[in-house]
């Protein structure tokens, strides 16, 4: 699923490892999600959105979920 | 805290490896012990190895995140298919059959317990299948994770 994690991370100045620490997953997982290769579970999507202070829909492209 | 957990994990891994090596050493050196002591040692070492392995797996399970769980699940699901295909192919590959037979003879000679041919074939077939399935599971999980990079 497309998302704006890379952009949001760059705005905050966080590395993938730092975001991974915050949401409680490995750096590999953040990398896979960021590249749209792996769709996170709902709880993890909420944790990622919460880390950026945004909603899930603001981080993940909901249109992509219907295609 | 994290380094304490890592050290404990490493200690459990080393203890598991030591118990497995001990098991093989005791199994091969049967003549060094009386039959009773030999059996007790083998049972004790298997029990220790099993207990340590449960602890290792529980620790690993806790550390897995959802990407890793998904890769493990993929590996486990498809390893059975790989096992079926490989076992079918092995039926037609004579050198592989000879290798399994040689392994069976080596184990039989080392343990000093004479086995009848069908049980030897069955045991070695079972061991080979387990090794193939575990190897395939691990390889498939790694490949799946690699494709998600």
TrEMBL record, chain A:
Keywords linked to the UniProt accession: DNA-binding
GO molecular function, one term: DNA binding
Superkingdom assignment: Bacteria
SMART domains xref list: HTH_XRE
Xref: InterPro entries: Cro/C1-type_HTH, Lambda_DNA-bd_dom_sf
Domain HTH cro/C1-type: 5-59
Listed Pfam families: HTH_3
Name of the protein described by the UniProt record: Helix-turn-helix domain-containing protein
Species whose genome carries this gene: Alteraurantiacibacter aestuarii
Automatic annotation (TrEMBL), chain B:
Keywords from the named record: Membrane, Transmembrane, Transmembrane helix
Domain of life from the UniProt record: Bacteria
TM region positions: 12-30, 36-54, 74-93, 122-144
Record-given protein name: Uncharacterized protein
Phylogenetic classification of the source organism: Bacteria, Pseudomonadati, Pseudomonadota, Alphaproteobacteria, Sphingomonadales
């Amino acid at each position: 699923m497309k998302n704006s994690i890379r952009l949001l991370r760059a705005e905050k100045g966080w590395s993938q490892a730092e975001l991974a620490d915050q949401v409680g997953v490995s750096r590999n997982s953040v990398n896979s999600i960021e590249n749209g290769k792996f769709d996170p579970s709902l709880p993890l999507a909420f944790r990622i959105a919460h880390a950026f202070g945004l909603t899930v829909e603001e981080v993940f492209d909901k249109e992509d979920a219907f295609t | 805290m994290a380094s304490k957990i890592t050290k404990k994990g490493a200690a459990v891994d080393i203890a598991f490896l030591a118990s497995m090596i001990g098991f093989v050493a005791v199994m091969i050196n049967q003549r060094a012990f009386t039959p009773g002591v030999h059996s007790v040692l083998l049972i004790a070492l298997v029990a220790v190895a099993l207990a340590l392995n449960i602890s290792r797996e529980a620790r690993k399970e806790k550390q897995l995140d959802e990407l890793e769980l998904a890769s493990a699940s993929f590996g486990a699901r498809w390893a059975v298919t790989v096992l079926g295909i490989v076992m079918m192919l092995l039926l037609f590959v004579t050198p592989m059959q000879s290798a399994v037979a040689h392994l069976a003879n080596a184990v039989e000679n080392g343990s000093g317990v004479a086995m009848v041919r069908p049980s030897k074939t069955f045991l070695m077939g079972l061991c080979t299948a387990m090794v193939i399935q575990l190897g395939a599971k691990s390889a498939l999980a790694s490949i799946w994770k690699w494709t998600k990079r």
